[in-house]
Amino acid sequence: xxxxxxxxxxxxxxxxxxxxxxxxxxxxxxxxxxxxxxxxxxxxxxxxxxxxxxxxxxxxxxxxxxxxxxxxxxxxxxxxxxxxxxxxxxxxxxxxxxxxxxxxxxxxxxxxxxxxxxxxxxxxxxxxxxxxxxxxxxxxxxxxxxxxxxxxxxxxxxxxxxxxxxxxxxxxxxxxxxxxxxxxxxxxxxxxxxxxxxxxxxxxxxxxxxxxxxxxxxxxxxxxxxxxxxxxxxxxxxxxxxxxxxxxxxxxxxxxxxxxxxxxxxxxxxxxxxxxxxxxxxxxxxxxxxxxxxxxxxxxxxxxxxxxxxxxxxxxxxxxxxxxxxxxxxxxxxxxxxxxxxxxxxxxxxxxxxxxxxxxxxxxxxxxxxxxxxxxxxxxxxxxxxxxxxxxxxxxxxxxxxxxxxxxxxxxxxxxxxxxxxxxxxxxxxxxxxx
Length: 435
Ligand SMILES: Nc1nc2c(ncn2[C@@H]2O[C@H](COP(=O)(O)OP(=O)(O)OP(=O)(O)O)[C@@H](O)[C@H]2O)c(=O)[nH]1
Prior knowledge:
The protein is built from 9 helices and 18 strands. It is an alpha/beta fold. It has 3 domains: 3-156, GTP1/OBG domain (Spo0b-associated Gtp-binding Protein, Chain: A, Distorted Sandwich); 161-349, 3-Layer(aba) Sandwich (Rossmann fold); 366-432, 2-Layer Sandwich (GMP Synthetase, Chain A, domain 3). Strands 10-11-9-12-13-14 form a 6-stranded mixed beta sheet, sandwiched between helices. A 5-stranded mixed beta sheet has the order 3-1-8-5-6, with no helix packed on it. The protein has a 4-stranded mixed beta sheet with strand order 15-16-17-18. Strand 12, helix 3 (254-268) and strand 13 form a beta-alpha-beta unit. Guanosine-5'-triphosphate binds next to helix 1. It is found in: Cytoplasm.
């Protein structure tokens, strides 16, 4: 419950290509190799931004690409590395690979970063391939391709403010008028079977997440009804708005209800009652409301069992009376109340749940055979090597052939029955097999 979820695509930048070039100096007809390396491609990095509370921004922006590195240049000059692309995510975002389901990490601290797609390494220029045997190599690597992956971001939205109160006191209605959430409202109890969550945005720029915690009835803390799930959520909220219906329509005693709800909260976790709580007198547009409220206040004042007198505010979600004042006051209380970790969060942290394994495991090469008898080579490592091969220079191609041999591709082909002159294909590039 309360999980905001979105799928995005990230693509890291390709490394810049290495260059094949030679020194051109006066009086030296054929200088040594002077092709520089390509710069590294930009990575895509997720970073916690504490100003964000939801994954809402991703509804409109789902594809993120980092820039490629610059190609190597003549005179041994390196290509410039591309800048990394940062994606701001809210605190508490869990990141997984949408295709494999593997969890890549939990972003739980301010400023925490997670590299989700590493930029490709720059290809080496021909400077690096010179040897005594081959002083003027026409070999250069292309840049390594950037990693591309589909990610699933999940956010267990933590409510800052919890609405509690008996069924039908007007919790969903209040939530719907002050937030963007649009809960169903109906005239029977337990309309809201899953907690509703909404974001309140104030004109002064402050915002907070408010949750309707319905189903809180007597016995909920003992596991009766749906209450217990919602009580668990209450645990996380920092400010509690306790709605008390002043209409008197349901023939209930508002003061009795108020005490019962507090007793439920207390038996679940006594510390909940120590958090700031505003008693919200609801449905103040109803004829008897003022009278009921006056009596309620009197009862409060005369109750000496209370540790302290609660703050009472009046609203009507129908006429919008008092709503703005209530939201401003709530934001003020939030600003004064520190965040705290729940027991579950502490346990997770102690278990060391940070993972940092965004690197792709490379599959070995694969061999298959086409209908026209062409051998097809595949596999992540092999395809990457191929992409990094500069096809314009025979020597670079020969280097690739050596790399394939080194990986055991030749042997594997021979084992499968490949003969001299058979066609072998990688991607859209075809060549002949030579034993
Ligand atoms: N007159 C009046 N009626 C209201 C007001 N707010 C809510 N109501 C009505 O009270 C009834 C119950 O409101 P809900 O918002 O569904 O109450 P709830 O506390 O969320 O109830 P549960 O989902 O059952 O826990 C509905 O018929 C609403 O139209 C108000 O400010 N004034």
